[in-house]
Amino acid sequence: MEIRELIEHSRQARERAYVPYSKFAVGAAVELADGEIVKGCNIENAAYPLCLCAERTAIFKAVSEGKTEIKRIAVIADTAGPVSPCGSCRQVMAEFCRPDTPVFLANLKGVYQETSVGELLPFSFTKEDLQG
Ligand SMILES: O=c1ccn([C@H]2C[C@H](O)[C@@H](CO)O2)c(=O)[nH]1
Ligand SMILES: [Zn+2]
């Protein structure tokens, strides 16, 4: 799949964002190893700390359906430059992706930047650390 197509899926996912509080809509698209796309948007709550980011919505949707082979991720928002995922989403990406998993950070103007999960969260805490 073309990168632009994956980003377009994230743009479509963003349209479903539930953001009455921040008004900051974000979309994410996870491409699985078999080519399937799992989309996610951010979903807010009157109890603000419960707000869930688009990236985690998409990843949790995939994992909850047994789809754990994540190939690539795209994220989009109406930002000046490429959107930057929050720390919690970086940690969740580190749990379910490899350090070299590509992440495409985009905005609505057509600007995008390719990075990777390892680049977004170097020196991350992982399940290996739990082994002592
Ligand atoms: O990469 C990001 C950054 C922020 N948000 C959401 C969380 C909240 O709903 C709103 C404002 O922080 O944007 C995402 O979904 N992804
Ligand atoms: Zn986040």
UniProtKB/TrEMBL annotation:
- Read off the InterPro entries from this record: APOBEC/CMP_deaminase_Zn-bd, CMP_dCMP_dom, Cyt/Deoxycyt_deaminase, Cyt_deam_tetra, Cytidine_deaminase-like
Q: Which residues form the signal peptide?
A: none
Q: Which CDD domains match?
A: cytidine_deaminase (cd01283)
Q: Which residues form the CMP/dCMP-type deaminase domain?
A: 1-128
Which cofactors does it use? Answer: Zn(2+)
Q: What is its EC number?
A: 3.5.4.5
**Entry keyword Transferase:** no
Q: Which reaction does it catalyse?
A: cytidine + H2O + H(+) = uridine + NH4(+); 2'-deoxycytidine + H2O + H(+) = 2'-deoxyuridine + NH4(+)
Write out the function statement from the record: This enzyme scavenges exogenous and endogenous cytidine and 2'-deoxycytidine for UMP synthesis.
UniProt similarity note: Belongs to the cytidine and deoxycytidylate deaminase family.
- What is the name of the protein in this document? Cytidine deaminase
